[in-house]
Amino acid sequence: MTWRTEALCIGRDESFFAADERAACRICAGCPVIAECLSYAVTTGQRFGVWGGIGEDERRSLRRRWLQTVRAGVPVDPYSLVAGELSSVSA
Q: Alpha carbon of 20 to those of 71, 80, 82: distances in Å?
């Protein structure tokens, strides 16, 4: 079983996550695999829609920050770069 089978968004039309970013982020906020989803999106360069509670613009910025850690030789899990920010949004 992968993290995708446990995602709250399973079965939803992909266009939902591109069309209504706020609603998609609310679904993500309660998802048990939000960290895995965001890490996957950042490390694989997913460009469209909401992944792990983060929209396209925020995720591009996060990917740049994450790539800096990779280039510096100290890669971190992308979720750890925003975990505090996400918990304050979902509260």
A: 34, 25, 21
